Amino acid sequence: MATHRTAAPAGGRQRSLRDLAKEIHASLYCSNPDYQRAAIDAHYRHDAAFEDPLVSVTGTPSIIAQFLFLTWFPAMQVEVSSVYETFTSLPGRTDLVDVIVVDSWVTFTLVPGLVKLPIRFISKFEFDEHQRVYRHEDIWSVRDVLANLPIGLGWVYGVFRKINGAVSSVAINAIAGLQSRSRQPSASLSGASVPSVSGPSGTASSKAKRA
């Protein structure tokens, strides 16, 4: 189970952005709304943006609301796989800013002791020059979510993908065959030889010889 705590500076010492991002991540992906609210208020710009495959919001009140949704689950377990740093540029600027990427698995408990749903999250925290988050993006795969559905639904989704792949391949090949046959007459016409033209003085070739 991940340790959940607010990411507050200790003794005024400036920590690395990796450590800061890890603590923010632990504070957000938990069942305690106080930790979530404190982390966002302390380390996000007021006009920060949050995005995931389903939502896009701006402003800390809206971001807090998105993470409050996580507290509705009976429990969750967070396992961080890796944390690394990269760089990007702000819109309209040429200087680079820090981006910390946290790769983790979050397992949501749907029914205590019975049903759990593991989802892989790739969280990108983009920091400004004051070490405040101005953009947070969560990346997760809809395929992973559906494949990990409990009580056998993930297996049903896997079978559906295979059937859909086979049926769509046959349909696409059939449509492509019809399109190919419809283009064949025009292709034969374009490749046909042009007949010689005769006139009062003979064929076109004989006129060329006399010239």
SSE inventory with pairings:
Blueprint: H1 17-28, H2 33-43, E1 44-51, E2 56-58, H3 60-68, E3 75-89, E4 96-111, E5 115-127, E6 133-139, H4 142-147, H5 153-191, E7 198-199, E8 202-203, H6 204-210
Parallel strand pairs: 1-6
Antiparallel strand pairs: 1-2, 3-4, 4-5, 5-6, 7-8
Helix pairs in contact: 2-3
Biased composition (Low complexity): 185-211
Protein name: SnoaL-like domain-containing protein
Organism: Polyrhizophydium stewartii
Describe the structure in your own words.
There is one protein chain. The chain is α+β, with helices and mostly antiparallel strands. It has 2 domains: 17-145, Roll (Nuclear Transport Factor 2, Chain: A); 149-180. The protein has helices at residues 17-28, 33-43, 60-68, 142-147, 153-191, 204-210; strands spanning 44-51, 56-58, 75-89, 96-111, 115-127, 133-139, 198-199, 202-203. The strands form 2 sheets. It has a 6-stranded mixed sheet with strand order 2-1-6-5-4-3. A two-stranded antiparallel sheet has the order 7-8. β3 (75-89) and β4 form a beta hairpin. α2 (33-43) runs antiparallel to α3 (60-68).
What percentage of the residues does DSSP assign to strands (E)? 25-35%
The oligomeric state of the chains shown is single chain
SS class: alpha+beta
The CATH topology of the largest domain is: Nuclear Transport Factor 2, Chain: A
Give the count of structural domains. Answer: 2
Name of the CATH first level of the largest domain: Alpha Beta
Largest sheet: 6 strands, mixed
CATH architecture of the largest domain: Roll
Order of helices and strands: HHEEHEEEEHHEEH
Could you tell me the mean pLDDT? 77
Uncertain regions: pLDDT < 50 for 5+ in a row? Answer: 1-13, 204-209
What's the total helix number?
Answer: 6
Strand order of the largest sheet: 2-1-6-5-4-3
Q: Portion of residues in helices?
A: 25-40%
Distance between the termini: 97 Å
Strand segment tally: 8
Rg, Å, rounded: 31 Å
Specify the overall morphology: extended
Protein name: SnoaL-like domain-containing protein
Organism: Polyrhizophydium stewartii
Biased composition (Low complexity): 185-211
Region (Disordered): 181-211
